[in-house]
Structures are given as C-alpha cells and as structure tokens.
Write a structure and sequence with these properties.
By secondary structure, this protein is mostly helical. The chain contains 8 helices and no strands. The chain has one domain. Helices cover 77% and strands 0% of the residues.
C-alpha cells in the first residue's frame, strides 16, 4: 500500500472512531437516552427495559429527528462527494474535494444545533472561547462556530432532559407517597411501598400509553 493509500485508510478509521461521539453529542440521542433512563428509574425497575434496549430505542427516535438534517446535508454534499476518488492518495484534488464536501455538509447540522441550543449557553461558550484565545483580539467566537454550538447544544439538551424527566417522575413519586401512606395507615409496615406501588405504576403507564406519548413529545420537540 502506498503512503497516500495508508494515510487515507488511517484517516477513514479515525473518522469512523469519532462517529459514536458525534452521534451522542451532535444529535438528539443524549436527551432521549437520559429521559428514557429517568423513566426506567421512575417506574422502579432500573433494569427493565435493559440498557441496550434503551440505547436502541433512543437511537431509533434520533433517526426520526435527524433524518431531515441528514437529507439536506447529503443533498448539499453530493456534487462535491462525486469528485472524491477513494482510491487516490489524500492529496491535491482529492483533499480539496473532501474539504469541500465537509464544508457543504456541515451547515444543515450547524443550523440544527443553533436552533436547539439555548441563547444563554451559546453566549457562555462564545465567551469561554474568547478567553481560551487570550492572544487574539476581537469579539467572542461566532455563534455559528462548531466550537460554540456543540457544547452549548449538549448542555441545553441535558438541561431539557432533566426537566422532562422531572415531569415524568412526579406522577410516580405521588403514587409512591399515596401507597406508602395507605400501607402505614393499615399498619402493613412489613411491605415495601415500592414493591406494592410497582403494579400500579405499570398500570398507570399502560393506561396513558406512556411510550407513545413520550415518543411523540420527544420527537415533536425538535420539529
């Protein structure tokens, strides 16, 4: 294998290694996964559904959220991607084509991140970005810079996930308190309130069609 081919292979492997990180930080995956994990704990069955199933469900819902962004990025990048020769060394025209493809594909993702990041978080990381470059004069980093958008988006998502999780937790906490009070008043202190409340929690969740309601709310929140 030539030096150019080896460099291309190593670059491709490095990009593939970054894919899981990008999926967790630049998509809706983190928020959805946190909400589903909080729901699992609210029900009182921390191992059901399993962590793998929660991850798969969060990934599937993220596909629905990110599909329009992916389609737009692919449409923008297609003309430049057609000029990439995968068998050629990553130099000259091939490198230019790769960079142009990335430049064309990133704006839809940046727009998604900016649309779903909080204004306070954007301002915070723009200011922190300026402080990290003490030798450079001028204003803070631009609000559409990925160095600002990615952490601002992730913090906003985590904050919203905990807010949604709180709303999910409250009905089950109330149910726990009611069941605990009833057991105490009946003198059944030997029974664990969580064990007695579990069937009622599951019944409540099934009656309100919890997974459908939660899925609709999470996906619609981005639309």
């Amino acid at each position: 294998m030539t030096d150019g081919g080896a460099l291309t292979t190593w670059l491709a492997l490095a990009l593939l290694a970054l894919v899981p990180l990008a999926l967790m930080t630049a998509t809706s995956f983190a928020k959805i996964a946190v909400v589903l994990s909080l729901l699992r704990n609210a029900l009182g069955v921390p191992d059901v559904p399993s962590g793998a199933l929660v991850t798969a469900f969060a990934a599937l819902l993220s596909v629905f959220v990110m599909a329009p962004v992916a389609r737009e990025s692919a449409a923008r990048a297609a003309p430049y991607a057609a000029r990439i020769d995968l068998g050629a060394p990553l130099t000259g025209a091939s490198r230019t084509a790769v960079l142009e493809t990335l430049d064309a594909a990133l704006p839809p993702l940046a727009a998604f991140l900016q649309r779903n990041a909080g204004a306070a978080e954007l301002a915070l990381f723009a200011e922190l970005g300026q402080r990290s470059r003490p030798g450079q004069q001028g204003a803070a980093l631009a609000a559409d810079s990925l160095l600002v958008l990615l952490p601002a988006f992730l913090i906003t998502e985590l904050g919203e996930a905990f807010a949604v999780g709180l709303l999910v937790l409250l009905p089950f906490v109330v149910l726990d308190l009611v069941i605990g009070s009833i057991l105490l008043s009946l003198g059944m202190s030997a029974l664990t309130p969580g064990t007695v409340a579990l069937p009622f929690k599951l019944l409540l969740f099934v009656l309100v069609d919890g997974f459908s309601v939660l899925s609709r709310a999470l996906v619609a929140g981005y639309q």
